[in-house]
Amino acid sequence: MRIITRTPPADEPRDWRQILADSFRDINSLLRYLEIDTHPAARALLASDSFPLLVPRPFAQRMQRGNPDDPLLLQVLPQASELETAPGFVADPLAEKHSNIRSGIIHKYQGRVLLLAATGCAVNCRYCFRRHFDYQNNRIGRKEWQEALDYVRSDISISEVILSGGDPLMLSDEALNELLMLIEDIPHISRLRIHTRLPVVIPQRLTDTFIRNLNNSRLGTSVVLHINHPQELHDLHAAPLQALRSGGTWLLNQSVLLNGVNNEAGILRQLSEALFSYGISPYYLHMPDRVAGTHQFDVSEQDALRLYRDLRSVLPGYLVPQLVRERAGVPFKSVMADC
Questions:
Q1: How far apart are CA 319 and CA 305, in angstroms?
Q2: How many other CB atoms sit within 10 Å of the CB of residue 3?
Q3: Mean pLDDT across 66-89
Q4: b/e string for 88-110 if b means 16 or more Cβ within 10 A?
Q5: N or C, which end of the chain has less CB nearby within 10 Å?
Q6: What average pLDDT does this structure show over 317-326?
């Protein structure tokens, strides 16, 4: 199914950087826009101080006015519960500091390496698994790219570079293309993967220039979007995603299973069907990482497996994402099974 939502009026800004600059950064402003009377508790405001609210207007436009339980709103609205401690929820549950082998590089898995191309995001998701990450010491600019890529060049076992962050699409098209060409110059690299949520919250980020540069690369390219709910898809996504796909870029999606957002089989089914209608393959359904401040989103493994059984019973296999959990020190994502 395709989720059709409001097309922005002609007088709204079209450049993604203008749209990002006009994002909501204040809880009360966002709630007033959504016509929600609830006044945030002082502790929710405090949670926003430690991890600021950031919501682009195109994403807010897809929220249901007057509904404090809107599934998109719940992903971005600071909650007092974020300040509570919960057993097993820690700042670095994946122990990424041990695989953060140099500034801007995380090397967890054989054959592929993650480059932190940008440390900022266009939306601050409250369940973010890197909300406590040491971005200060991993902020690399264009002058440091070559140094980071020297590490990749020195290890011929690496065949894939993964651009992550933050969100790599926070870079301009010019900077992204420069980085792409530097990666292409490494002979043993054959694949480039980009993990991004920015086009989900600001569809205008999928510019013609970005699409052309990616599709013209000598590398095998894939874009992994982070879409958690069918309501996040917009008709503005259709044409640019089709252009990427028809040009040879593989489109994948990974979702996070979030309590109160998408932990119902019916919602997950709608999501897979909506993704298919946009040419996106369901890839992973992640168990939420046990990050300090995110326990309100946690789903038990028992409930997750029940949902997964229900999903497999109503969808063909190619529309069922793998249910996975990432574990510190394990050299692959653990696929959860109920048999």
A1: 17
A2: 18
A3: 94
A4: ebbebbbebeebbeeebbbbbbe
A5: C
A6: 95
Rounded CA-CA distance 126/102 in Å is 27
> For position 1, what pLDDT does the model report?
38
Cα–Cα dist 102/106, whole Å: 7
176-209: b (≥16 Cβ within 10 Å) or e: bbebbebbeebeebebbbbbbbbbbbbbbbbbee
254-263: string of b/e by CB count within 10 Å (b at 16+)?
bbbbbbebbb
Q: What is the DSSP string of 220-246?
A: EEEEEE---SGGG--GGGHHHHHHHHH
pLDDT for res 10: 47
What is the C-alpha to C-alpha distance for residues 149 and 104, in angstroms, rounded to an integer?
10
Handedness of CA 300, 301, 303, 304 (dihedral sign): positive
Q: Quick one: residue 5, left, alpha or beta (phi over 0 = left, psi -120 to 50 = alpha)?
A: beta
Q: Report, in this order, helix, strand and coil percent for the chain, each rounded to 5.
A: 40, 15, 45
CA distance 284 to 321: 5
Residue indicated by tokens 């990450």: 133
CATH number of 96-335: 3.20.20.70
Q: Exposed, middle or buried, 43 (CB in 10 Å: 0-12/13-18/19+)?
A: middle
pTM for this one? 0.92
Q: Which residues contact 9 (CB under 8 A, 6 or more apart)?
A: none
Structure tokens at 71: 């599934």
Query: Quick one: pLDDT at residue 231?
Result: 98
Report the first-to-last Cα separation within the chain, whole angstroms: 30
Rounded distance, CA 238 to CA 227, Å? 14
- Report which residue type is found at 247: G
Structure confidence by residue, pLDDT tens digits, 278-318: 999 999 999 998 999 999 999 999 999 999 999 999 999 99
Q: Where are the domains of the chain?
A: 16-83, 96-335
